[in-house]
Every structure is written in C-alpha cells, then in structure tokens.
Design a protein that fits this description.
mainly beta; 49% strand; 21 strands
C-alpha cells in the first residue's frame, strides 16, 4: 500500500510544471517549471522538505523549443534536447543553490526522430527509447561531446500488451508503469560501455501505481521507491522489489 510522505507540496507554486520535468536527485526532488525556474525539495523516506530555488538563467524557454529536459546521471547538470536534436547543458549545484548558463554539448542529433519517445541519462552517455521499444545509446567522448548512436541488443522496452504511461531508468533497470498501474522492470545485464543490454520484463511491484482517478502530476523513481506526486503536490511512495 502506498505511503503518504508528509511535508511541503511539490510543484505547487501556481506555475505549470510538465510531468517529465520533475526529477529525483540524490536526496532531493528537482522541479523545472514552465518559466524555466529550477526548484528543489529535500526528501527522506516519509517526509518532504520545503522548496528552495536554484537561481540562474531560465532553463528550456528560449530558442528552439525543447523536446526533452533531463537531469544527468551525476545530478550535476540539466540537459535540454531541442527538436533539432541539439543538446544544451546547464550546470547545477544543489548544495550551493546554483544554475549555470547554457552551453552546447557537441555531437550528432539526439532523439530528434518522430518515433523517439524519451531520452535518459546514463553514466556514460544518453539513451534514446523509440516507439518500437528499441534503445539506442550515444556514449560520451568527454563531458562536452558525445558520439553516434549504437543499438542495444535487448528485448523491446515498454512493449507489453498494456500501453505504457511512465517509463524511467532507475539504477540498473528500466521501470515501466502501464495504464493499468502495473509496474514492470527490465534488468540490465551488461554495463553501458559493454552494450548495456537489458533482459525481458518482470513484475516489479505488487501494488498498482497511479491507476485511475485524477492523473498524477509526476511519477519518478527514487532509491527503492516509486514516488507519485498528485495534483495537490502530495507525495505517495510505492516500494519496488
């Protein structure tokens, strides 16, 4: 059964927040709102702290409209991928409460095809999942450049009979929450730099997550939990296995 984590409401300032711009980051929830402001809430199991802003230039509100906004694996920068597949980065320091200016990360187009559904940060690069369930990975050459995409030799991700509602990468797994609220996972069987292959899906929770009723504001993975943030900003936690 889901547990209510008491404390401050998340993403409830009145400025709209897209469901895919709420991120887990170490012991925080990071929110990028439609004004490009970056906010963070400290969290620990059972409680949510008050929001504080990470001042800096607006994120993902200028130039070519963004297609994806993600937090990198080290939680040290926000990556903005526009409709042309360009990758731009803002350095992020949660402890110092700082958001940096945007700079271009060099490489070929990422996630720009019509059938590309999501982009995920990995320790070694950027992973793109498409509507066929394929995952393609761009490996970093260095912090400011990445190479061409290579396909992972894995079963389709999020390609079960019931349509996927949320798909996210958590530690060594892809987690899929379908429209029925069922939670499925694909376990990684090889390191990213060795292909990052994933196994077939298995049931990852006995509970139904964000099923029915009013759609959640956001659903994110954090440690051994899936956190559901409802329209009131309340945080409810489901335990994964």
């Amino acid at each position: 059964m889901a547990q209510h984590w008491h404390g401050a409401p998340v993403a409830s300032s009145g400025v709209h927040v897209r469901h895919d711009r709420v991120f887990p980051a170490k012991n925080h929830i990071v929110v990028v709102n439609d004004n490009g402001e970056v906010w963070a809430h400290p969290i620990q199991p059972g409680s949510v702290g008050g929001a504080f802003q990470l001042p800096g230039p607006a994120v993902a509100v200028h130039g070519v409209p963004p297609k994806f906004v993600i937090l990198d694996k080290h939680h040290s920068r926000i990556l903005v991928i526009n409709a042309a597949g360009e990758v731009w980065a803002h350095d992020l320091d949660i402890s110092s409460r700082f958001t940096g200016n945007a700079y271009h990360v060099q490489g070929p187009a990422v996630g720009h095809a019509a059938h590309d559904l999501e982009v995920y940060a990995t320790k070694h690069g950027l992973a793109v999942r498409n509507s066929n369930g394929e995952v393609w990975v761009h490996h970093y050459v260095n912090r400011n450049a990445y190479g061409g995409a290579s396909r992972m030799n894995s079963p389709p991700i999020a390609a079960l009979g019931t349509p996927a509602r949320y798909v996210f990468k958590s530690h060594r797994r892809f987690i899929v929450v379908n429209t029925a609220g069922e939670v499925w996972a694909h376990q990684r069987t090889a390191p990213w730099h060795q292909g990052g292959n994933f196994a077939g899906a298995y049931k990852a929770s006995h509970e139904l997550v964000a099923a029915g009723g009013v759609p959640a504001k956001a659903v994110i993975p954090w440690k051994q939990y899936i956190l559901v943030i409802n329209q009131a900003g309340e945080v409810w936690a489901h335990t994964l296995h």
